[in-house]
Amino acid sequence: MDGRGVPLSFIVTGANVNDGKRIDEVLSAIVVERDRTPIRRSKHLCADAGYRSAEALRIIESHGYIPHVVDRRQETEAKRRQPWKKARRWVVEVCHSWFNRFRKLLVRYEKLERSFLALNHLAAAIIAYRKVPLAVNIIYG
Q1: How many angstroms from the chain centroid is the CA of residue 38?
Q2: In terms of Cα–Cα distance, which of 57, 70, 60 is closest to 26?
Q3: DSSP annotation string for 60-122
Q4: Domain count of the chain?
Q5: Kind and range of the H or E element at 44?
Q6: Is 2 a domain residue?
Q7: Is residue 40 assigned to a domain?
Q8: Residue 47 belongs to what domain range?
Q9: Is residue 42 part of a domain?
Q10: What does the angle CA 129 – CA 125 – CA 108 come to, to the nearest 5 degrees?
Q11: Model pTM score
């Protein structure tokens, strides 16, 4: 997800697969290619403690990202010291709640992976479209 919560890539795995094992597939599946960023402003990747392993950090850095992997305790402590700074983890949680609003995706009934992936892409397109600033909001009326 980008900084506003718009999803950039999807992969479908089983529920018992650890997220940290699929980080290479997720970063390779990003459909929005970014231009090369200047040295002052690099690409940052915020992740939770599941991506703390040396292999996951190596994969993140090989894709050109600067990893920011903190657990909730460290983030709470940083928020207590600097309350004016915006938390980084809320973006992922908000995006998950936006996907949960699509009732068809909340419980997976599709047997085929391509059907489930297509529904997720449709939901991601609607979420991204809602982020486009318009004079009149077409979706909500």
Answers
A1: 23
A2: 60
A3: HHHTTEEEEE--HHHHHHHHHH-TTSPPSTHHHHHHHHHHHTSHHHHS---SSHHHHHHHHHH
A4: 1
A5: strand 43-47
A6: no
A7: yes
A8: 19-130
A9: yes
A10: 135
A11: 0.66
